[in-house]
Amino acid sequence: DMRGNVDTRLRKLARGQVDALLVAAAGLARLGLDHRAAERLDPAVMLPAVGQGAVVAQVRSDASDLRARLAIVDHLPTRAEVEAERALLAALGGGCQRPIAALGRCDGKRLVLDGAVLEADGTQIVRERIASDAAHPAEAGAALARRLLALGAGRLLVEVAR
User: Looking at residue 161, what is its pLDDT?
Assistant: First the structure.
């Protein structure tokens, strides 16, 4: 069982309770533990879970003064990337129990979104990429979801739901 925070998981690795450990590089970096990573998985090999590495501040809609103060830390490319990833997840009916991965990359006005749906045991994968205008990230996520479903991702999602 690999419950617990990153430190707890690293202690289990050090004690030999597990042979290997897969954690988010962003989490290691935030804790100043990047040096503990033996290898970084290339997104071409394995996409991350939706929203990995993004830090979000959620604010009540009626807190306009707080929203204005937080605007200075709002990184628009990251916002577009995460909005596209989350739109993909929502369009696929996903949550943390479904093997759905996504990675958005915003370069100026262009957004590239990779997405994948996997068989629960990892033996099958449906993966696709879409490029779109970064000004419409939610539409990109929904469009990629439609492509993945057209390629058979729905069958994999049904398998997980059983």
Answer: 57
